[in-house]
Design a protein that fits this description.
- It contains 9 helices and no strands.
- It has 194 residues and is an all-alpha fold.
- The chain is elongated and about 60 Å long.
- The N and C termini lie close together (10 Å).
Amino acid sequence: MAHTSPTLLARLRDPADADAWATLLGVYGPLLRGWAERLGARGPDADDLVQDVLAVVVRRFPEFVHPERPGAFRGWLRAIVANCARDFWRARRRAPVAAGGTDFGEYLKRLEDPADPLASDWDREHDRAVTRHLLDRIRGDFAPETWELFRRVVIDGQSADEAAGAAGTTPNAVYIAKSRVLARLRAEAAGIVG
């Protein structure tokens, strides 16, 4: 699983490092928005909930001590989301119906429990959000043909032979494209995920 890089986390200790905070927002903004909606907030309410979460992250980040285990920041953020959602709906004196019609409070407790499948959903969505962010950042570094070969094999799951046949090239060209994009992806990830 991807986890937030100690390098990015160290940079976030400087509140004046606008680039680090922009990177955090770029990586986590879509994830937070998706979970705000999943937790019942829509439109401007979802924006408000995301803003509440980010305000807590900014305010409490100096207290965050990374225990050097993968997923620590992700888990910390997940707990903040659950607490902010709880406060958000309490302030509005209502609670949305949780997925499957379950009690909203229980749903939030499940989100906070790292052993619960709901927390695993968060982890998977986190990994997808980080990967999407990284892929978006590097896509422009490649010719469209290279990117297409990479996409077919890595994202779509085609074999090198299938991708080569569809693109009118050789399997070796597919392997080269895949290798180049993955190398660039690893380099880009070094500053964001570790």
